[in-house]
Design goal:
By secondary structure, this protein is mainly alpha-helical. Helices cover 61% and strands 0% of the residues.
């Protein structure tokens, strides 16, 4: 599946550093980016098995599986966002 450059760029612009920025940063993809942020945050984590680092890796892997249209930069940012929500 080809990478959705528009959505990847919107994720990177709106969710840098683990927090949500001004909605204008996501442009016309705000609804999609917000849904991705909510989705990654809602991933179930078995904390008896994972520490934060392995949970972030699990979240990145799961989002990559669910959203093959996202580029590596978006997956990385979603992982960082996930980490900040669980910190």
């Amino acid at each position: 599946m080809p990478t959705d450059d528009r959505l990847t760029a919107a994720v990177v612009a709106y969710l840098p550093g683990g927090w949500r920025r001004d909605p204008v940063a996501a442009g016309d993809a705000l609804v999609e980016v917000t849904a991705l942020a909510d989705e990654v945050t809602a991933l179930p984590v078995d904390w008896t098995v994972h520490d934060l680092a392995s949970a972030v890796a699990m979240a990145r892997d799961e989002m990559r599986r669910r959203h093959p249209e996202l580029g590596p930069a978006a997956i990385a940012v979603l992982g960082t966002y996930f980490a900040y929500q669980w910190k």
